[in-house]
């Protein structure tokens, strides 16, 4: 406890100099993490924020506000004052809330401070699965309709998007979808043989693949990834994936749209610097994420593009509750 | 001791000993409470059916229906048993179950929860502690105020300062105050 | 560095030793305060220790983990408010002991037994981690479902005056756990289109309400009766006492390790299952269970601390968290440039032995901090009720708020507090409600996963259960306990016996 106090005090020594010079931040900033403690969003945010605090000269108190696929946290930030003292630390999910009928708000009510990194989706199979590669999997599904078990994480999650891509490119696959809480529990189930195939994010699967506990089938990137150079890319397997890639889940920090410009600028600068730090970049590459570190218009363009690709993909797969058109989400250019 | 003991001697008295202590009287208000629970269970059963009906074994509403059905059945059984019992003599609802002090404390708590957001953590908690300790303890204002201030200070220190739980700030600018103290400390260090 | 040196690293490095000590000390108090959780403390530490080396960071976290799991028992015994979910079972016999003025004895036994359980967990982690984790991986959704049913059958043990009321309470608990957006399909369940219902009802809010506020309300009836004077002459249990409970604590520790090692189940379920186990195997408890039986303290406390070592098993061998705290620790290892996964044990066995060493040290500190400062703690219960009750209420409100920074949770907490008070008054046991909430997701999710995997075919589902040795064993255990816990079996047996007697005559 003593250490905590001493630490808090010494961390605040930085605060003193900053707060005297400028108005923002004059008190702690709350960082609302959409996902639970120990998840990848949580880890990434808790890793990047300490350095941003130093630059900012303030404290960011991070809290996990979970539930409703992140919508609870998002709504909490949306209903807080637009003064720059409440940050939303989130992932890609909110961009699908509207079409999936999970909420009325998404990132269009927010300004992106920084889109930190993008993940790479990968298709992995259990080590005892009766196929060793992507083509083998498709053939096996065809021969044994309704027998192969895919892990999923509910509508709008990464597995549902990747599966929608596979269905769009290769035609409808007759498989069973077994729902899990997240890719962590699903990959555990994959190793125990409860499911056969799981579309997951590379970082979550990489250690299992290295140990031979699961077989990589396909990476969803235009080019082979450094950590798994021998795993074929989706585009090499089927040209059709070209129109969707690169695609992947991402992590970003947001504030409400009407936040004062001074706060937005300071936060943007702080997180930009924090995301350039070597330890953070190393963490990202270890976990198989592609660092983006984009903000402003560039980040907004990234969000729009992501939303239009994914929302229309889900719409075409018949998984949406409302058409993206209803929310003015443009159809992606062919 | 439990009936799974493979000790047949012990088995005999266990049956009545462990599970069923059928009371031969009911407490004031108990009969009404069982009916309330039964009605709530029936309503919940209907809500459970409303989730997905008999769509599939794996449907989100299947287990809720099973659960609420069990609630209805046991709730019904409890109600039936309770109604057969005579009410316990010499007890009244307003004395044994819901005496005035309980109602007052429950209302204080409710008021506390309602005012927490608009008024903020510090003033509401202080009011709640002072009022309730004064009411229950019946001691002088000095001791009451001292105890509630001390309690509040400890809780504030542990939750707010050490664990950074952002309690609702409300009308009292405590975040700014805290930052001021931290700046002073930081400046001094 | 070889394994030996890594193991003794914490013992020899003064700074690490101090960090484990500080962590354990803090953990005891974090665990004791409802609303402050180990999960929360450890996730704060992730940012806080970001710039540290990996060893001090992990040492501090392990201290907090060990101390926190133990600390929950303090408030459970003294105030009947479990400081953490894993101490729910502890309250059932610990609080009656405190009411008899034996709080010191109860805390002493709890501490020594937690220490013992902690050690069993660490020994299993050190010696058998790979095989236990392989066993844990074998659990299929249907096995988790059977495990959940096994847990729900504990209702029989937790019901006080009436089994029927216990079943009602248990079903109610399961229902509470189901409220909100269904995590598998995002269908609203019992949400009535209200946004505040969508995130469901926080389990901690239910726990604090049912145990904290309802207890405080019930205590209002005894405002004027004097507080129980605590005798604290005998804190450290005698060697004879420890020896007496050795067989039981070995069994309950094993339960703790296994349940702790299973991803998705943790110390809370382990403690409840151990309590039930103790109730079934103990022929002559020191006092009836629920009235201050020592066995009722020994079982959950050995189990929940053994579950700590258990939780590290899948984390260290597979990179799979055994519970919420190890999930955060995995994140911490990532941040510090390690890659937890199946290869960690192969590539960096030092880290494994360092963690084992740190756990051992933390366990010793837990014993030391547990056995000191009891006098101060017992003073809490000797305070006048008129002061204690408002304090408990305030702490309940703050604690419920702190879990998820949500005012909604405070309202839920109060609602369940009032409901809990009435249920208490009319003889509905509250233990089964909490049990139901804890097991609700485990049961519902895994039932659905299991039946989806078998394409909604009950025939295939039962075929799966009967052909897998693990599932079959769990299934038989469910059947056995079901019949032995319900009056059905005993009635049948009594009837058979009577027939036999008549024949004999």
Task: Give descriptors for this structure.
heterotrimer; A: 334 residues; alpha/beta; D-Maltodextrin-Binding Protein, domain 2; 2 domains; 6-stranded mixed sheet; 3-stranded antiparallel sheet; disordered N terminus; C: 505 residues; mainly alpha; two-stranded antiparallel ribbon; 2 strands; 76% helix; 1% strand; globular
List the helices and strands and how they pair.
The complex is a heterotrimer of chains A (334), B (189) and C (505).
Chain A: H1 2-21, E1 29-33, H2 40-56, E2 60-64, H3 71-79, E3 86-91, H4 97-100, E4 110-119, E5 121-126, H5 134-143, E6 149-152, H6 158-170, E7 176-179, H7 183-192, E8 197-201, H8 202-210, E9 214-219, H9 234-237, E10 250-256, H10 261-274, H11 278-286, E11 289-294, H12 296-316
Parallel strand pairs in A: 1-2, 1-3, 6-7
Antiparallel strand pairs in A: 3-10, 4-10, 4-11, 5-8, 5-9
Helix pairs in contact in A: 2-10, 6-12
Chain B: H1 8-19, H2 30-52, H3 62-84, H4 93-97, H5 100-119, H6 121-137, H7 141-162, H8 174-188
Chain C: H1 3-12, H2 14-32, H3 38-48, H4 54-79, H5 88-99, H6 103-137, H7 141-152, H8 155-158, H9 163-178, E1 180-181, E2 188-189, H10 195-198, H11 203-219, H12 239-244, H13 246-261, H14 267-281, H15 295-318, H16 324-335, H17 344-347, H18 349-371, H19 374-382, H20 385-404, H21 407-425, H22 431-453, H23 458-467, H24 469-485, H25 487-504
Question: What report would you give on this structure?
Answer:
The complex is a heterotrimer of chains A (334), B (189) and C (505). With 334 residues, chain A is an alpha/beta fold. Chain A has helices spanning 2-21, 40-56, 71-79, 97-100, 134-143, 158-170, 183-192, 202-210, 234-237, 261-274, 278-286, 296-316, and strands spanning 29-33, 60-64, 86-91, 110-119, 121-126, 149-152, 176-179, 197-201, 214-219, 250-256, 289-294. Helices cover 42% and strands 19% of the residues of chain A. In chain A, helix 2 (40-56) links the parallel strand 1 (29-33) and strand 2. Chain A is globular and about 65 Å long. Residues 1-21 of chain A have low confidence and may be disordered. Chain B is flat and about 65 Å long. With 189 residues, chain B is mainly α. Chain B is built from 8 helices and no strands. Chain C is mainly α and 505 residues long. Chain C folds into 2 domains: 3-453, no CATH class; 457-505, no CATH class. Chain C has a two-stranded antiparallel ribbon. In chain C, strand 1 and strand 2 (188-189) form a beta hairpin. The longest helix of chain C is centred in the first third of the chain and has 35 residues, at 103-137. The termini of chain C are far apart. The chains are: A alpha/beta (334), B mainly alpha (189), C mainly alpha (505). Chains in contact: A-B, A-C, B-C. Chains B and C meet through helix 1, helix 2, helix 3, helix 5 and helix 6 of B and helix 3, helix 9, strand 2, helix 20 and helix 21 of C.
């Amino acid at each position: 406890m003593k250490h905590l106090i001493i630490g808090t005090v010494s961390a605040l020594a930085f605060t003193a100099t900053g707060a005297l010079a400028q108005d923002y931040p004059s008190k702690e900033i709350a960082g609302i993490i959409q996902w639970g403690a120990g998840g990848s969003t949580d880890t990434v945010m808790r890793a990047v924020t300490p350095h941003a605090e130093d630059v900012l000269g303030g404290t960011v108190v991070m809290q996990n506000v979970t539930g409703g696929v992140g919508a609870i946290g998002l709504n909490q930030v949306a209903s807080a004052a637009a003064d720059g003292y409440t940050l939303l630390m989130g992932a890609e999910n909110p961009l699908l809330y509207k079409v999936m009928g999970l909420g009325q708000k998404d990132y269009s009510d927010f300004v992106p401070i920084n889109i930190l990194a993008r993940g790479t989706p990968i298709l992995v199979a259990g080590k005892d699965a009766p196929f060793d590669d992507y083509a083998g999997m498709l053939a096996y599904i065809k021969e044994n309709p309704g027998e192969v078990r895919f892990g999923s994480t509910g509508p709008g999650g990464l597995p549902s998007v990747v599966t929608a891509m596979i269905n769009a490119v290769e035609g409808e696959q007759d498989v069973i979808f077994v729902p899990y809480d997240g890719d962590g529990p699903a990959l555990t189930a994959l190793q125990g043989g409860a499911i056969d195939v799981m579309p997951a994010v590379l970082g979550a699967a990489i250690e299992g693949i290295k140990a031979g506990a699961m077989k990589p089938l396909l990476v969803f990137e235009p080019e082979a990834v450094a950590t798994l150079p021998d795993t074929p890319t989706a585009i090499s397997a089927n040209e059709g994936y070209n129109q969707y890639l690169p695609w992947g889940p991402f992590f970003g920090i947001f504030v409400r749209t009407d936040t004062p410009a001074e706060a937005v600028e300071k936060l943007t600068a702080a997180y930009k610097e924090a995301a350039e730090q070597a330890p953070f970049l190393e963490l990202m590459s270890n976990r198989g994420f592609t660092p983006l570190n984009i903000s402003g218009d560039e980040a907004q363009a990234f969000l729009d593009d992501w939303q239009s690709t994914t929302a229309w993909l889900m719409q075409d797969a018949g998984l949406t509750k409302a058409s993206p058109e209803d929310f003015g989400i443009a159809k992606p250019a062919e | 001791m439990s009936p799974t003991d493979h000790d047949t001697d012990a088995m005999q008295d266990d049956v009545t000993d462990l599970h069923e202590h059928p009371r031969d009287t009911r407490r004031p208000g108990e009969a009404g409470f069982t009916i309330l629970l039964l009605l709530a269970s029936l309503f919940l059963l209907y809500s459970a059916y409303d989730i997905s009906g008999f769509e599939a074994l794996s449907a989100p509403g299947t287990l809720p229906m099973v659960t609420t059905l069990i609630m209805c059945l046991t709730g019904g059984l409890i109600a039936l048993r309770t109604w057969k019992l005579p009410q316990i003599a010499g007890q009244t609802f307003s004395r044994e179950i819901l005496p005035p002090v309980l109602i007052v404390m429950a209302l204080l708590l409710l008021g506390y929860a309602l005012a927490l957001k608009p008024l903020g953590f510090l003033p509401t908690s202080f009011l709640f502690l002072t009022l309730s300790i004064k009411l229950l303890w019946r001691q002088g204002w000095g001791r009451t105020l001292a105890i509630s201030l001390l309690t509040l200070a400890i809780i504030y220190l542990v939750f707010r300062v050490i664990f950074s739980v952002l309690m609702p700030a409300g009308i009292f600018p405590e975040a700014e105050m805290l930052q001021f103290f931290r700046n002073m400390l930081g400046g001094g260090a | 560095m070889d394994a030996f040196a890594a193991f003794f690293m914490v013992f020899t490095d003064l700074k690490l030793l101090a960090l484990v000590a500080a962590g354990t000390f803090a953990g005891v108090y974090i665990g004791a305060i409802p609303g402050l959780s180990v999960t929360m403390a450890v996730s704060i530490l992730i940012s806080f220790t970001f710039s540290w080396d990996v060893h001090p960071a992990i040492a501090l976290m392990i201290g907090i983990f060990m101390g926190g799991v133990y600390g929950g028992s303090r408030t459970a015994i003294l105030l009947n408010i479990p400081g953490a979910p894993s101490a729910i079972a502890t309250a059932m016999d610990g609080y009656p002991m405190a009411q008899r003025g034996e709080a010191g004895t109860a805390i002493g036994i709890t501490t020594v037994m937690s220490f013992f359980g902690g050690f069993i967990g660490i020994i299993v982690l050190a010696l058998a981690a790979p095989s236990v984790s392989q066993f844990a991986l074998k659990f299929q959704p249907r096995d988790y479902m059977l495990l959940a049913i096994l847990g729900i059958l504990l209702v029989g043990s937790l019901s006080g005056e009436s089994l029927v009321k216990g079943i009602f309470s248990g079903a109610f608990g399961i229902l509470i756990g189901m409220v909100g957006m269904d995590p598998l399909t995002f269908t609203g369940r019992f949400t009535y289109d209200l946004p505040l219902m969508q995130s469901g009802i926080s389990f901690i809010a239910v726990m604090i309400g049912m145990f904290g506020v309802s207890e405080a309300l019930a205590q209002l009836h005894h405002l004027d009766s004097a507080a129980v004077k605590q005798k604290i002459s005998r804190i450290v249990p005698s060697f004879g006492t420890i020896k007496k409970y050795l067989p039981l604590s070995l069994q309950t520790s094993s339960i703790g390790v296994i349940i702790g090692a299973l991803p998705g189940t943790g110390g809370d379920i382990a403690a409840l299952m151990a309590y039930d186990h103790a109730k079934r195997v103990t022929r002559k408890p020191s006092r009836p269970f629920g009235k201050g039986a020592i066995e009722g303290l020994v079982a959950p406390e050995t189990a929940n601390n053994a579950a700590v070592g258990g939780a590290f098993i899948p984390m260290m061998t597979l990179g799979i968290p055994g519970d919420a705290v190890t999930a955060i620790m995995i994140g911490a290892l990532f941040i510090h440039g390690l890659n937890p996964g199946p290869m960690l044990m192969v590539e960096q066995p030092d880290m494994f032995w360092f963690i084992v060493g740190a756990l051992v040290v933390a366990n010793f500190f837990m014993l030391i901090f547990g056995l000191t400062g009891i006098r101060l703690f017992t003073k809490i219960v000797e305070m006048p009720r008129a002061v204690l009750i408002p304090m408990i209420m305030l702490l309940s409100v703050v604690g419920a708020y702190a879990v998820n920074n949500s005012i909604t949770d405070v309202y839920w907490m109060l609602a369940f507090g009032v409901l809990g008070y009435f249920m208490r008054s009319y003889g509905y046991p509250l233990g089964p409600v909490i049990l139901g909430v804890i097991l609700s997701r485990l049961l519902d999710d895994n039932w659905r996963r299991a039946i989806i995997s078998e394409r909604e075919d009950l025939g295939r589902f039962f075929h799966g259960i009967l052909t897998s040795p693990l599932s079959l064993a769990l299934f038989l255990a469910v059947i056995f306990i079901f019949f032995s816990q319900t009056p059905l079996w005993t009635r049948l047996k009594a009837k058979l016996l009577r027939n036999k007697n008549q024949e004999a005559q």
